[in-house]
Amino acid sequence: MRQFFNPDEPVSYAYLQVSLNRYTFASQFTGDKVVLDVGCGAGYGSSYLARNAKRVIGVDISKEAVDCAREHYPKDGLDFITADATKLPFPRGSFDVVVAFEVLEHVKEYESLLRECKRVTKNGGMFICSTPTKEFMSPGSGKPASAAHFREFYVSEFCQLLAELSNDVTFYGQLHCNWINKTKARIQKRIAKRIAEIMGCVPMGKQFKSFIKKFMRDYKDMILSELKEGDFDKLLDRKYQPVPLQSRLTPNCIIAVLRVRQRE
Questions:
Q1: Domains of the chain: total
Q2: What 3-state DSSP class applies to 15?
């Protein structure tokens, strides 16, 4: 089952930063727009997008998450509803911008989710989607690292999947690391797989040791943030912001920004 973090409970620094930076990144596309946040969780991201959007609707399949969102972020122009992302209760072309961050891997019928997100996006509108990469989460493993995931996608798989929805798509990543070179791949594969079983995440490459130390330190560094209005600006660490996908590097999270073209 997909989990959400309650804004009143401690959360790891790294988890918080990758999430905050995704929403601040998306906000550049949401000014004066009607926005749908699919898999909104406790609503902190939807609330942030509502700062410059005309209207925002947050959708989550968890009633508990939606109740939490309504409690924490009551605001004009911001609504939360309980709904299945593979069967969105909106007419075709209802939204200028649709975001779906870290939802794809939690849904068994992920292709239906993508089709629905495209369906409810206006012609010429934007669809922004993200997922953790398999290179980072579970390289070489036949199953996802997280029990809450149905599938984890290699970068190439995600790029192909999203390119099938639109021929106008740009890819970004968070926390890029160097790939391991091919001559070391066979030796490191078993080690990486074992570490993945222990840690649940393995970045690849020359920066392995320093990255793991930094990443694990960030995850151990639990902070309490109620994520009220203005907290994004106060907490934001720009080292975690999305940047264009880099050749020969792999991110721990990959983001696609699509311009949707609907068939008449």
A1: 1
A2: helix
- Interval 96-146: pLDDT, tens: 999 999 999 999 999 999 999 999 999 999 999 999 999 888 888 888 888
Tokens of 5: 């973090």
Strand partners, 133: 153
Q: Give pLDDT < 70 ranges for the chain.
A: 1-3, 178-230, 264
pLDDT reported for residue 181: 36
Query: Torsion-angle region of residue 180: left (phi > 0), alpha (psi -120 to 50) or beta?
Result: beta
- 6 assigned to some structural domain: no
| C-alpha distances in Å from residue 259, one per residue of 104, 126, 168 | 18, 5, 6
**How far does the chain reach from its first CA to its final CA, in angstroms?**
37
- Domain span at 105: 11-259
- Name the nearest CA neighbour of 136 among 185, 176, 102, 171: 176
Helix (H) or strand (E) holding 187: helix 182-199
Q: Has residue 2 been placed in a domain?
A: no
Quick check: is 264 in a domain?
no
**Would you state the pLDDT for residue 192?**
55
- The enclosing domain of 70 has a CATH number of 3.40.50.150
- What the block records as the tokens of 56 is 């925002």
| 241 in a structural domain | yes
* Beta-sheet strands, E only, within 34-168: 34-38, 55-60, 78-82, 95-101, 121-132
Q: If 0-12 CB within 10 Å is exposed, 13-18 middle and 19+ buried, where does residue 179 land?
A: middle
Using a cut of 0.70, tell me whether the model's pTM lies above it: yes
